[in-house]
Fold:
Amino acid sequence: MPEHLTFCDPQRLEGDYLAEFLATKRVPQNLFYLLNGASSFYSYRSTELAQIGSHDELRFFRRQPFWSPDCRMAFVSLGCGNAGAEKPLLQQMHAEGCNVRYIGIDSSDSMLELAAANLADSDFPQTFALADFGLPEFPQQVEALTSDCDACIFAMMGGTFGNFDQSMIADLLGRLVPPKAYLYLDVVPMYAAEDANLKLRSRFSQLPENLRLFFDRLLELLGLTRDDGEIYGVESDDGVVSTIRYTFYFRPHTTIGITCLSEAAVLTPDDHVELISIRAYQVASLQAFMSRRGFEAVGSFVPDTGNLSHLWQRLLFVKEE
Ligand SMILES: C[S@@+](CC[C@H](N)C(=O)[O-])C[C@H]1O[C@@H](n2cnc3c(N)ncnc32)[C@H](O)[C@@H]1O
Structure:
């Protein structure tokens, strides 16, 4: 039977995220995925996941020292969503006799429900924990779950890493991932050819249209509709790591009163509400950036992405002792 843990009260998390938005006019990215944000995300993401092949991933992982029946392994998915990105790997590990335990972490209860339903046909041990991996108590909570394992992989799949401020998330992972444990990142890579990067930029700039439901749902949670203003994207430099970064903002057409968490707030056309950032990486620069937090690159591969309009790249690191 899967184990379900609650490290944080979901109502408190939602309250904290909305309060953060009201104080900063920046949307913590967790807000997108609460309640039906989860299903609207997968109305788009499931098509993407169905296109990503698992052959290269299996070939890559079978070469790693922890791929052995003698190794008790924990796979901790940070922001697991519906667990679809890691499911093929976990199933194959288990089928080939690896002693793997899955720990799905998400701050969205509805995401954890999707993950549990998705893995219901798999019989490796599973734990689903409602938690915010950014809270100071989280490293201890996860340590208690993984202390009897010989190897531990902390994974951040599906571009989650690319939605955060880069120094903040790299520092957080540096504190969270213990020595000798692994970090597995799934990011969108930049291309070597500039014309391919131009197409990628164009695709990134269309995110609010391509993920219409997802953005509308977020605005609704903030007491807004798309008609109240415009969503626009800005490309800017990360500075610390070489990326193509798009940040999307919402600017109201006129001064507007909103009620969010039963609190009244006012937005004016001077407010540029920061919604979300997405990134594509120059991968060598990301590896160098992570090495400054003690993550040594083990290797990476580009899975077959079928007809998708951009690539994914998966990178494995090991934390230095
Ligand atoms: C971009 S989605 C990716 C989901 C999934 N890994 C995939 O590949 O489809 C990001 C996920 O991270 C979760 N998340 C974001 N910030 C989080 C935090 N601080 N703590 C826990 N979960 C978080 C969101 O709720 C969401 O499910």
Residues 126 and 293 are 29 Å apart (CA to CA). The longest helix spans residues 10-24. The longest strand covers residues 243-252. The chain has a mean pLDDT of 95.
